[in-house]
Every structure is written in structure tokens, then in C-alpha cells.
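Expect chain and fold; see below:
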Amino acid sequence: MKLVTAEQMRAVDQEAIEVRGIPGPELMENAGRGIAERIREGILADSLEKKFVVFCGKGNNGGDGFVIGRYLHQYGAEVSIFYPAPPDKLSDDATLNYDRAGRLNIEIRGIASASELPESIKADYIIDAVFGTGFTGAPRGLLADIIEYINAQRIPVIAVDCPSGLNVDTGVHEGSVVRAGYTYSLALPKIGLYHSPGRELCGTVEVVPIGIPEGVIESFNIRDNLITPELVASLLPVRKPDGHKGDFGKLFIVAGSTGLTGAATMAANASARSGLGLVTVGCPHSLNPILEAKLTEAMTYPLPDVAGKGVLARRGLGEVRKKIAENNAVIIGPGIGRHRETQDLIQRLVKSLDKPAIIDADGLNVFEKDRTALAECPVKKILTPHPGEFGRLIDESLSSDLYERYNLVRDYADKYNSVIVLKASPTIVVDTDGQIFLNPTGNDGMATGGTGDVLSGMIGSFLAQGLSERDSAICGVYLHGLSGDIAAAEYGRRCMIAGDLIEYLPEAFRLVESYIE
């Protein structure tokens, strides 16, 4: 699903209205009805006897609010609507729907000043239709007062398109902003709804179609995308009913050093939990007994190590190449440490790779000073840096400007012929063609050691099962975050550890597989 800025959304709307001939009031009707139907199917599913108070602004977002109020009233809910008086200051389309709602005897109250707001309101839900996606800056005057009033009621809020006061391009706000529990984004999701603090202010986000033809959206060649469960379900490897372990991929993981065998263990276990047939961990010879004890499903393969150091030695290059040749994909890096011999081994290995590969963690740190092998690597690969690792990899700090950051990652995905998984909040997957896929799942409970190793194992599993680099990364990051969200609901974010993600992977897969048509 395409992910847009406010300007792109305006252009899409304008194309639909002015070129395709879809009347603006029709789009507004579709938007309001679509949100009202989602509310009826969800919030009102158990009972229509709910009270809604709708706060409308002067523009088209307010017009959407009048439409929502009208439909909720028709469904049998109790509805009251507040708007900034007088009515002649409403936009034309908002005025049209103000009049339509008025003919149904819905309670509609014009408010000229904050003093006219009731001391408190009794309602089951508040609907925020004050400002839409075109708003920038800080709310002022009466509309700022209304936003503060909404927040003070401590009643669950449903935001129309976005929480009022939020900049949907950046996810930040300059003044008062509504704190919503639900946000219904109209037509397409907006980037700022998924960047903090916007993602926390939006609550649960759903996208509501409003009747814009798919061809209109495609004509704009938008390069930013939102990963959805429907997309992941469509990409998951097909399981052969009569398949055997050799049919579901073989993965080799180059991992481990003294003190860091846990990274190898988590990557291996996560790969096995993600549908993989066979996984082998290539580790320093002296650490093999430790990994033999830690790993049950995975096999181990002891590799030459530097005497007394518990790190991979340069002379093991031939054996590593041999094992890679026997497998469908390779992960390079979890817990390998920073010994100079290990780094030399990885430099030489990457320069001659001929299988699908992920370079992660210490595998990326190998290239901080010399990126020649990375640039000369003959195959497309997956790089999985967090922002600090990415900054070291390119010798440049990441900009705080969202779009400069996106474009910088685009540049280096092309330069290094790599799919880049930038692990952040949110995580993005960037392909060599400049397409970006933003992952909406995950939470701060995952900010703990080892979760990156779990992610590498999952992506490696999909890669070994035959998915492309981009599709492997998309499936990996979404399911990884979804498992983290399930774990957070069970344990709370404060108490999560990386192993919890592996524990809840089966439930995450079941949820995504429910979207398979």
C-alpha cells in the first residue's frame, strides 16, 4: 500500500476530482460513510446504544465529521456535533453536509468561544474531525482550545484522517495535538502516522478507501510503501504438502565468538521457527561444544579459530566457502566480534560471494574503514544496520530530517547493490530501485540485546526458502515486529527479552496467514 505525504495526497485528490471527474462531495460522502461503517462493524458490533460527540473543524475534515455523525445517527447511535460558529465560515462541502445533518434533527451546536463548551461531556467516544492532513504549524485560538478540551475529557477518541494538530509529513506537532485511540486514514496512509510521536498519538491506524481509482494512485509513481499483513501473506513461501526438509531451504550462519554465542543461538532458532528446513551454524572450533549444548534443532560446524581467542580465523575461508556452496543462503555476522583475522576473513568472503546473503551486526562493522569488498560483492545482498552502524558504514551521520534520511539510504542501497534494512523506529526496507517499505509493527520493548539476531535469522530463513532479498526483508521485519507486539501484550514492554520474540513467532505467523486468500 502506497504511503504518502500531505502534498501527494492533495495531488491524488485533485487528479481524481479535476481529471477523473469524481465530485469532491462524493469523495467526502465516501470518506464519512467508510469511517462510520468501520465504527459500526467494530465499536458498535455489540450494541448500537452508544453516544458519540463529534468535533468538526471549518474545512473538509469537518465536513467528513458531519457525514460520520449523520451515518452514526442513522445506525441508531446518539450523536451530538460541535463546530466553530458561525456556519458561514465552513467550507462549501462542509456546509453541504452541515445542512444534511441538520435535516435529520441531530444536535448541532455552534461554538464561538471556549467559554461556550460545556464543562464536561458524557459520551462513549469523541470523534476528532477538527484538522486534516493539510494542517501545519501550531493550532491557535478556539480550535486549539477545542483540542485541549477533547484531551481533557478522558474519553476514547477516534481521529478522522489524523489526530488534529499533527504534521502528517513528519509525525511531530508544534502545539496542541489530539491524543487518539483510533485513527482512520482516508484513501492512503500518511508517513507521519508511523513516526514518533505521531505513531503513539494515533493509536490503532486503519486505512479507509474513499473511491479513488487505483489508476490515479499508480500514475504518481509513489516510491514509499506501507507493509501490510495482506502484502506479507501474499509473499510467504508456499509450503508443499508432500515436502521434506530439503524442500524448505538450507541456511548457513557464520556466527559466534567468545562471549557472543547467544547471537548465533538466537539467529539459528529464529530461522528454524520461520519455516526453514535445515540450519547450520559455522562457529569457532573452540566454541563448538558450547553451541552444541545450546542448539537442539540447528546443526553446528566448527571452523578454524585463532588459538586461545575463540574467534574465526582467516585460514577458515575455504571451509566457509565450501559450506556456503552446500546451502541456499548465508548469514554473516551475528556475534563474530572484531578481531582483525575475522575481519580479514569476512572481507575476502564477501568479495567472492555467490549465494544470497545477509550481512549483519559485526559483519557490517568489518567495512567501517574499507568498503571495497562491499561495493565489489558480485551478488545482491541484504544489509541490516541500525542507525549507528549505518552511519559508521557510510562515514556520515544520519540526518534528523526524515526525507533526507530516506534519500540517503536510497543512495547507498543503489551504491552497494543491496537491500538495506534500517533498524529504527520505524524500521524501513530500502531496495536498489529506490522503493521504501515502512514497517508498522514493533515497539520499544524490543530495544534489548539479541532482537537484531532474531531478525537476521528470520530474514535468512525466508532467503533460504527462495524469496527475493526485498521480499525476505519485508516478511522478516513485519513478522519480527508483530511477534514483539504479541510479546508486549503478554509480558509488558519493560520486561521483554529477545527470546520472547521467538516464542511468539507461531502466533504472529497464524495472524498473517489468516490474510491468505
Summary: DSSP finds 20 helices and 17 strands in the chain. The radius of gyration is 26 Å. Residues 6-222 form a domain with the Rossmann fold fold (CATH 3.40.50.10260).
